[in-house]
Amino acid sequence: MKKSVMTVLCAACALFLAAGLSAQSLQPDPAPLLGQWLLEVNAGEIYMLPMTLKLVDGKLAGTLSEQSGMFTDVPLTDITWDGTVLKCGVKIPTPPDGAERPVKTEFKIDQGKLVGTIIIEELGLVAPAIGTKK
Length: 134
What we know:
Distance between the termini: 65 Å
Radius of gyration: 21 Å
Strand content: over 45%
Order of helices and strands: HEEEEEEEEE
Shape: globular
Number of strands: 9
Structural class: alpha+beta
């Protein structure tokens, strides 16, 4: 009787281990995101925001800049990629007063471009953005 309980426990452990390894192997491939992008944001005015995405210790990391120099290489935060949607945050100076505000982004890859929105909740702004890989 004890032997059959041990067999069942060992089998259960093996299944949990296999499921865990399988879940790790199913992580979405970030390769299409990696590199330098130029985001064109239409927020009443057009803003050009260079963005870099790379892998650091197996996780997505990146920076965002503003092409005319309003801010440079600000680290992206809370980056998630589920294989379809890329989301991240960043805290940057924003018009109209240059105050630093949290900004959220959400993009999908469509025909090799990032297509989505830049959201500044504090200002009630949701602006369309398109990213082209350099």
